[in-house]
Write a structure and sequence with these properties.
The structure is a homodimer.
Chain A lengths: L13 E6 L2 E2 L5 E5 L3 H6 L6 E6 L2 E10 L8 E4 L1 H7 L6 E6 L6 H8 L6 H12 L5 H13 L4 H13 L12 E5 L9 H10 L4 E5 L9 H6 L8 H11 L1 E5 L7 H13 L4 H14 L4 E8 L8 H17 L3 E8 L7 E2 L1 H12 L7 H17 L8 H10 L2 H13 L10 E6 L4 E6 L1 H10 L9 E4 L6 E2 L4 E7 L2 H13 L4 E4 L1
Parallel strand pairs in A: 1-6, 3-5, 8-11, 9-10, 11-12
Antiparallel strand pairs in A: 1-7, 3-6, 4-5, 4-7, 13-16, 14-18, 15-17, 15-19, 16-18
């Protein structure tokens, strides 16, 4: 076909980048004017998927349009997620075109209609997911389809491999590399720094990377950051591990299993979580981290991710067998998932618990101490530093005689210098409305309370639990203390506590 | 539990409404500042689902946050979708709170895990969907789940009923009320106004409501609007039908099956379309419209919604049996889905085809004429105005002798006055690059071409097809003409045609 009308010039679809300061969580969004020439020439309408290009980088984004004066006619305004991914400067040129259709969605549709997915199909899907080409709608379709027809063993293996392949992969000099992971968020369950200290003190290599909080009041990286720098690049991590055998760093400098966080974001909204996806999520991160001996903490309880011991055993079995396919040795430990671990919930408050345990303080939370020793013991056995069934005893000894504390201090120094966790400016108790026995602690609401108080952004903020399940309490006695840096945040948290009497349930 | 710190005042979460002129298709979005007191007190983060309340009305919206000066600290800026739904005035007070959790999502999750859904569960889901409480992620999960485990007959029935119940429902004085529907978009397939004219001319009642285009170059309402007003409220519709027996109005004034458009929006993104959902979609709108005799046009072809005659028969069977449960009589007609119908694609161009057929012009598109008579004939038989197997002949007679044209003119007058469709300012051909035979016409790309030319917003814009499948064509001869009102839009369309040689494929 030939162009039949002369004089029509094709203008390149370039616009000037503008940073809008628009926070959309992870969604890359671009705003353009309805009368922008690019919208007209590309035939773009609101919610179209577009491809933004600049300086050789490409980002997929959702387009919204504005009428009127909010933008100049030749501006493309980017959300923070899009701005960071595209790496442009203010005013720089961006090309905007229709996003090419997602070929891998054909595989997702095949799965919706009941077909199994092979390795190439899963590689293609995970590649597109990691590259940010899937909108939340596409992600929801994939996750729903693999929940409706759960991933079988070959598919779980293939998904795990695809998730490893799409990111960075670390290798360490040591033959034996330890790692640990807790499946399912349990507030305050901050065992990692203690475990790392014990395990490294026994001469094993344990180069731990951890995340910041996504929706919880603290991630391991947030808590550790109140004690030492965690923002280490790969070279710095290697130096620390070379010197001390272990580290507790933020994983942000390396891209390990980048599709995982994308999946997790939508899983949380839908509240679906299937075994195959969970296994791929956990193991892909460990494999990519270069670990080959992994201890998995599986909290079990009616409101935990794993609801029964039976389910826990089944999960453990599948985890172990998929891990073995990658040359990973695993040890799965079922623990109590019915209430928070430790007393502090929030970065600095959890750090205080850690320090108390490591320093053998008499009032250190014993449940945290026990759980950390249990997991560390398993790691010691797995890594060959303790004979079978003697790991727990060795871990406790290393903690009790101060070797773990010495190692922890050394790691903090190696990471850039040990710090004192901050203390909140304000503190207020939430008290019992009646006398009786503590029969239920709502993990999710305790976490919300800590966040309203300011965690994790305000490192000193959060909640300190003063009771555990089964405790007897008198009317008017404090159940928790709320820690905050401002009267406003303290007030928000206390209002929430007042409006949510089922935060902690007392039976008369 | 008691508040232990005095002097903390709870400020009501009220902000001032601001219209942003932000187009997001159907998504209600609200923008607030990160440091806004409501974000702090409610603990709101980006992408949180919030409930906006004002003057007794409530709207669910997704929150994004902005830093800096885009908004005042006490402003809540609404997208157009949110603004329209909430019905506030600039500066009016809006309360913003966390959206309550979606109870009906528990049912969606049950379906994901393989369980059947009963009537109460589907009523709850559809109620939440129609009320705008489901985000696209939730909708994607539901639609994927009912594709992975398709809706069975009881579920299809229950879903249809739920979709009817959640909107308005019309009733007409006549005992026999005719309707028609085409399943699956085929460009140019604008039979409705001709069918309505023929059927009403034969004394049957056919109160047709139709949609505007969502993603196509023209909806029936857009096309009809170039010939007469369509924006009739219910009272006006009743007057027209009372007087002339039929109408072709825009359904926007009445809320028929409001959940349907919400589902369709996400189905399009995912490209999933399952039978149960399709049946519920079609029938819920007809039942809500008060129809009891429905002709269904099922185009069949390799790129149509229905791919084979076998599939078409199966669909027809299920449609008929579900419809019967509601006292609806249906007649399903399989038609050709391999190429566009008629010549014009775009509101005014399609209107020209309609007028040519109604006026028995010698060059009227015969395929459109034939299809309209086929469907009208089925309607006449279904409604008892023609004996079995004589409907087609009667329809053709009514068309040929001018009764249909007279009735159409009368309907237009009753709707507010007949108009002349506009003509585009510019016209340019797209010509054949080689000689040969037309072997493929890409429906989707033809539609895109029409939209780039300006359809449906520019009523005169679009595409006129000059060839059909099987035609012999000489190199350089025109295949289509593009109609546009501006050189810019004409240029965009012609550039697209030049870059998409597979728009119309010619075999040498």
């Amino acid at each position: 076909m030939t162009l039949a009308i002369p004089g029509v010039h094709e203008r390149p679809p370039t616009l000037r980048a503008r940073r809008l300061g628009l926070f959309t969580q992870h969604e890359p969004i671009v705003l353009m004017r309805t009368d922008c020439h690019v919208c007209r020439s590309e035939g773009l309408s609101p919610r179209a998927q577009v491809l933004l290009s600049s300086g050789g980088r490409q980002v997929y984004a959702t387009l919204y349009q504005v009428s009127g004066e909010l933008l100049a006619i030749d501006e493309a305004a980017l959300s923070e997620a899009a701005w960071t991914l595209l790496g442009v400067a203010e005013g720089e040129g961006i090309e905007v075109r229709h996003a090419p259709p997602l070929a891998s969605m054909a595989s997702v549709r095949r799965r919706i209609y009941g077909n199994r997915l092979d390795e190439p199909a899963l590689q293609a899907i995970v590649g597109d997911v990691a590259a940010g080409r899937y909108t939340d709608v596409h992600l929801a379709a994939f996750l729903t389809a693999t929940s409706a027809l759960p991933l079988d063993d070959p598919e779980t293996l293939a998904l795990t491999k695809a998730m490893v392949d799409v990111g960075d992969r670390l290798a360490w000099a040591s033959e034996t590399v330890l790692d640990k992971h807790c499946i399912g968020g349990l507030p305050g369950n901050r065992t990692t720094p203690i475990v790392v200290a014990i395990v490294a003190a026994c001469g094993l290599v344990i180069p731990k990377t951890s995340s910041r909080a996504i929706t919880s009041p603290a991630g391991t990286a947030d808590t550790m950051e109140t004690l030492a720098p965690v923002d280490l690049d790969l070279a710095a991590m290697r130096r620390v591990v070379e010197r001390e055998g272990g580290c507790v760093a933020w994983g942000g400098a390396v891209r390990l299993s980048p599709a995982d966080d994308v999946f997790i974001g939508v899983e949380r909204v839908l509240d679906v979580d299937t075994e195959g996806q969970l296994i791929a999520s956990v193991l892909s991160k460990k494999i990519a981290a270069g670990s080959n001996h992994v201890v998995l903490d599986i909290p079990v309880g009616p409101t935990a991710k794993v609801r029964s011991e039976e389910a826990g055993r089944r999960l453990a079995g599948r985890l172990t067998s998929v891990a073995a396919q990658f040359g990973l040795k695993t040890r799965c430990i079922q623990t109590d998932g019915t209430q928070p671990v430790g007393r502090g919930i929030g970065p600095a408050l959890e750090a205080c618990d850690l320090l108390a345990v490591l320093q053998n303080a008499p009032d250190a939370p014993q449940d945290l101490r026990r759980r950390a020793c249990l997991l560390a013991g398993a790691a010691l056995e797995l890594g060959g530093a303790a004979p079978e069934d003697q790991g727990l005893a060795l871990a406790e000894a290393v903690l009790a005689d101060g070797r773990a504390w010495a190692k922890f201090q050394a790691i903090c120094e190696a990471q850039g210098g040990m710090r004192t966790p901050p203390t909140a400016a304000l503190e207020a108790p939430v008290t019992a409305a009646r006398s009786g026995r503590i029969i239920h602690i709502n993990n999710r609401k305790i976490a919300t309370l800590a966040k309203l108080a300011g965690a994790p952004d305000v490192k000193a903020a959060g909640v300190r639990l003063l009771v555990r399940l089964g405790d007897e309490i008198a009317s008017g006695a404090p159940l928790v203390t709320v820690h905050a840096d401002s009267r406003g945040e303290l007030g928000y948290a206390l209002s929430y506590a007042a409006a949510n009497a089922d935060l902690i349930e007392i039976e008369a």
